[in-house]
Specification:
By secondary structure, the chain is an all-alpha fold. It has helices at residues 2-45, 51-155, 169-194. It has a domain at 121-192. The longest helix is centred in the middle third of the chain and has 105 residues, at 51-155. This is CCD27 protein.
């Protein structure tokens, strides 16, 4: 936004300079018209003289006026050429500044869209994490119930003693293995007796 504001300020300055130069150009054109009016006034003034005087005076005046006008015209042409060149440069600068403003706005728009996409992905990940936590808690709960059932089944068997301390998973496995071994041994004895 700062870059766009800076570019817009530069563009406003360039456009103001362009208006000033155009104003000066109009002023020069007005001065030229004023000279033409003065020349017409002098011409009218000498109309009242005799033909010979008039011719002489007009010739001298015309030569001087022509010389002066040629200088003024040359100066004004030079100034107008410089101003036209400056106007072209200013218009080119304004076009560049406008292009930069458009480019900067597009860049900001892309960044905003990228930021929205990142935000969307972050929200999706948060949602996925929450789901995973819920599923993990459900699995833990099931595992705990299953473990308690195993402990209950293991230590409720005939001849088993109640555990004195909190059991580890290894303790539970060991107790279960002992029960399995005893049952296997019992089955073997039953098979022998039946023979």
């Amino acid at each position: 936004t700062g870059a766009i504001s800076s570019l817009q300020r530069q563009m406003e300055i360039q456009e103001s300079e362009l208006r000033r130069i155009r104003s000066e150009k109009e002023l020069l054109q007005k001065q030229l018209r004023k000279r033409e009016v003065q020349l017409q006034t002098v011409s009218d003034k000498f109309c009242s003289l005799t033909e010979e005087q008039r011719q002489e005076e007009i010739t001298v005046m015309m030569e001087e006026e022509n010389h002066n006008l040629q200088q003024v015209v040359a100066e004004q042409k030079s100034q107008l050429a410089e101003q036209n060149k400056l106007i072209s440069e200013l218009q080119e600068t304004i076009s560049q500044l406008r292009a930069e403003v458009v480019t900067t706005r597009l860049h900001l728009l892309k960044e905003k869209q990228a930021q929205k996409e990142i935000q969307r992905q972050a929200e999706a990940l948060e949602h996925k994490e929450l789901q995973t936590r819920v599923e993990l808690e459900c699995i833990r709960s099931k595992f705990e119930r299953y473990r308690n059932k195993i402990i209950q089944a293991t230590f409720s068997a005939e001849g088993s003693r109640e555990p004195l301390a909190e059991l580890t998973d290894d303790d539970v496995l060991e107790a279960m293995q002992k029960i399995i071994n005893e049952r296997t041994e019992l089955q073997k004895k039953v098979k022998k007796c039946s023979k």
